Amino acid sequence: MKIAIAQLNPIIGNLTNNAQKIYEMAILAANQNVRLLLTPELSLCGYPPRDLLLNPSFIQSVSIELEKLAQILPPNLAVLVGTVEINQNAKIKGEKLLYNSIALLENKQVKQIFHKRLLPTYDVFDEGRYFEPGRQSNYFTLSSNFNDSNPLKIGVTICEDLWNDEEFWGEKYYEDNPIQDLVNIGVDWVVNLSASPYCVGKQKLREAMLKHSSQRYQIPIIYANQIGGNDDLIFDGSSFAVNRQGEIVLRSKAFQEDFTVIEFDEISKNLQPKIINLLSETEEEELWSALVLGLKDYTKKCGFSKVVLGLSGGIDSSLVAAIATEALGKDNVLGLLMPSLFSSEHSIKDAEALVKNLGIKSYLLPIGEIMNSYDKLLESIFLGSEFGVAEENMQSRIRGNLLMAMSNKFGHLLLSTGNKSEMAVGYCTLYGDMNGGLAVISDVPKTRVFALCKWLNRQGDVIPHNVLIKPPSAELRPNQVDQDSLPPYEILDEILERLIHHHQSVTEISQAGFDLETINKVLKLVIRAEFKRKQAPPGLKVTDRAFGTGWRMPIASRWKID
Amino acid sequence: MKIAIAQLNPIIGNLTNNAQKIYEMAILAANQNVRLLLTPELSLCGYPPRDLLLNPSFIQSVSIELEKLAQILPPNLAVLVGTVEINQNAKIKGEKLLYNSIALLENKQVKQIFHKRLLPTYDVFDEGRYFEPGRQSNYFTLSSNFNDSNPLKIGVTICEDLWNDEEFWGEKYYEDNPIQDLVNIGVDWVVNLSASPYCVGKQKLREAMLKHSSQRYQIPIIYANQIGGNDDLIFDGSSFAVNRQGEIVLRSKAFQEDFTVIEFDEISKNLQPKIINLLSETEEEELWSALVLGLKDYTKKCGFSKVVLGLSGGIDSSLVAAIATEALGKDNVLGLLMPSLFSSEHSIKDAEALVKNLGIKSYLLPIGEIMNSYDKLLESIFLGSEFGVAEENMQSRIRGNLLMAMSNKFGHLLLSTGNKSEMAVGYCTLYGDMNGGLAVISDVPKTRVFALCKWLNRQGDVIPHNVLIKPPSAELRPNQVDQDSLPPYEILDEILERLIHHHQSVTEISQAGFDLETINKVLKLVIRAEFKRKQAPPGLKVTDRAFGTGWRMPIASRWKID
């Protein structure tokens, strides 16, 4: 029996577009004698639809679109489509109004509906907000020969349903274990329809986990993932299959739409090896692809084709310009060079070298005279005060205003270029360099920004050499460098990793060999910068804990401040 | 038996401060021969602690603080303290790591722990993210005479636990009904320890609901609520008690800390009438108090004492200035008047009249020359294009920059002054008038802004009369008024109410008599403005559906756009 994976890139809420894509994949599948087509979790509305799910008319539209899709799919092809179902008993039983479901479409009908059983409510996931967990094992039967003899029993799981193998994790995250239930029922194989967001190294984790489960339960698993960027989340695809020995027998492409076919041999009851695309060679390569996809999809799905960004000659804006150029093409990227009195000569030169290397457009807009006009207006009020944060930020906000003026005038999406280390400690200006529709590298720590640029330069300079070797500086006052205010980035980033990702206490970090005063300083900076992060643009999530949807901190709080 | 309610205003995460407050209330209670002291939900860490709960060292600190508090409380007083408990079986059973709990402290011990059973996961609530629901009925026994004879049985519920009376709501929201279980056990009365956020009319709803439950189950209920502003959420207090006939027998003050005592008569098995503070006379009075508290607490809990805001002479900034003056005192409010070429003469006059009425400080900072410097710099690039959104927004962002310069220089918190109607349709400038640490009236629709100002002027003009009668205008181009771009506010606000609060479809709204084209225009504006709202400051929530924590919409989505 041939099974195909439609690794789709949906647009959230654009039901017609998404249904059309499923239809096209179904035609492709039918032409190759595929019996069963898999599409990702919530493939009809895209994942995550978030509060669109609170609109009854949205739910109704999904339902109508599903029926319409069932009508036009080719005969003799069963298709699993991700959809939202109303929980008819919600108000009587006191349950949530919806299910996160998979519909089995065949012969112009919605033949069966399966409900997701394990609903994630950590990090960026809010599924408990909308959905009631399914309580039954999900499977269906299908014959390869179309006459219903010797039907195969196929288990259906939805994303999180397979993320509870307590042998693999060493602990249980949910009470139920859907794959165990399906094995008890005696299914021939299990499909998993996912919308699993990317973070560095996630695919290795997924494969290790499902290899473990397939070996443990002696059962083949076909894993179909969504691809594409949806706001802060990047879905990397990399759908794959493991046979009952736990070997990878198929791997779809990463970071792009794909259509792959695999065959289940009914004699050996196992999956046959098929095309196995390689994983990225390095984490940098993987991260680069993720950021390019995230930027591209956010831009296009928001209806833009061009972007604008400020080029300071520093490494962050240089990297973002390179990502944008790869994502959208050099003709669609505009850089603004906005030097001030405090900009060093090399800043302009480095930015100009970058512009040349990338072949993008740029304008030079010195901000000196605008600065003077602000200074003049505020002169009498600021009289007697020293040059400080107010004056520094004013420059950044003048640049932010100019960037937005270009965005508003010519319809370019503004990209902000701050990295995760800056965002963590608040070394950035709200309404200034934080301005933008998308924060491209706000989940990439500074040390990783350097690593990415070095990787990018592996076959010759894309990022000008001087950008990589000069000390980072905001250039908002004379001879300023980042390390005037912050610990060295190697130290800062490791402390941040321990604080943010590992929830370590000051004591634990100190015991790992870091200076207590430095740790406390960093912690206070992180807490105090919460108000800035609250107003930051969506940032592409590439780690297991990004600022953004999955980071929910109070602002007016005092823990560890006093 | 005397029972006291400590209606406390905690600072999120400031465990020492919060424990101290509980201690002080306990001393007060002991001095009045109170036997049982009630404090709000999570009174030790403040509600909502959000992702602070993900830090193991935070949880440990809470636990240590609870033990310390138990040690110092007066003898012969039982105290119910809101706290967080570790779920010891989480990893074995596949459950969440924590419980939202109430600890019964008595005789230097933590005598009993009760877990919240119904965990809200709608609107602003994320309790499923952190907590496992309790599965047992929560009650304890207590004797009034200290020798354990004739003990009373007291049922303990935590906030949402009492919000599932299916008779009152006409439907069930949760499977369990904790009060029913407690009645079956035969408790003498029920306490409810809450942190229930304010919205207009919420107290009436709470009282109606608990009156219904007390009558239905023939049981007295004592309801203790948190007060104070925590980021976007305002807790109004208004703790109250209903006797077994469903009559209000006690009501604490609204919008301020309070300590009230009530007596349970052991013969009649009922609560004795006590002080009953009046509810606000009008919704405007209530809303005013809420906004004043929200502004005051956000400012103070963030460590500020002074605020700055832009005064355009319009009604929104006038109202916010009045709220700030009430909250912080006239000496702590600074207004900036920043007229441009397009500002009408009356704008300055109206703003100056407001400054005079309120007695606050102000500066006049005309932005014409700064505008000229931007125009000059961009002249060659913008050559041939028409005056448009870019030029309009630039003015707003110049003002935003000046406001932040004042904030950074003098340590004033910047308040943004946009109303909910503007925020809904995006009639506001990101990085311009949206700038601020707090959006004071971003959940107040324009029509309600007018109503509030009229109420405020009931005993003479606070808001200058001309501000109330002139047509609203952004004054970013010659002779501009809001109604050039938007439907009349009476119509706009009703369409928005139906879209945002009632999740009505275009068809439904149209059937209610609104023009189809207008509805579609409004809907598109709302969807397109999502990117602005994503970067807005926290806004004080005063309705059942505010933009902010409880509004989780995708940006790069296409539902109803194409």
Automatic annotation (TrEMBL), chains A, B:
What Enzyme Commission number(s) does the record list for this chain? 6.3.5.1
GO biological process assignments: NAD+ biosynthetic process
Locate the CN hydrolase domain: which residues?
1-269
- Quick one: which pathway? Cofactor biosynthesis; NAD(+) biosynthesis; NAD(+) from deamido-NAD(+) (L-Gln route): step 1/1
Instruction: Report keywords, A-Z.
Output: ATP-binding, Ligase, NAD, Nucleotide-binding
UniProt-annotated binding residues for L-glutamine: Y122, S196, K202
GO molecular function terms listed in the Swiss-Prot or TrEMBL record? ATP binding; glutaminase activity; NAD+ synthase (glutamine-hydrolyzing) activity; NAD+ synthase activity
Cited InterPro entries: C-N_Hydrolase (IPR003010), C-N_Hydrolase_sf (IPR036526), Gln-dep_NAD_synthase (IPR014445), NAD/GMP_synthase (IPR022310), NAD_synthase (IPR003694), Rossmann-like_a/b/a_fold (IPR014729)
Q: Which Pfam families match?
A: CN_hydrolase (PF00795), NAD_synthase (PF02540)
Q: Name one GO cellular component term.
A: cytoplasm
Listed under catalytic activity are: deamido-NAD(+) + L-glutamine + ATP + H2O = L-glutamate + AMP + diphosphate + NAD(+) + H(+)
Which of this chain's residues are annotated to bind ATP? G310, L311, S312, G313, G314, I315, D316, S317, T417
* Sequence similarity: Belongs to the NAD synthetase family.
The function of this protein is: Catalyzes the ATP-dependent amidation of deamido-NAD to form NAD. Uses L-glutamine as a nitrogen source.
Q: Which PANTHER family match?
A: GLUTAMINE-DEPENDENT NAD(+) SYNTHETASE (PTHR23090:SF9), NH 3 /GLUTAMINE-DEPENDENT NAD + SYNTHETASE (PTHR23090)
What protein name is recorded for this chain? Answer: Glutamine-dependent NAD(+) synthetase
The source organism is Aphanothece sacrum FPU1
Report the gene name.
nadE
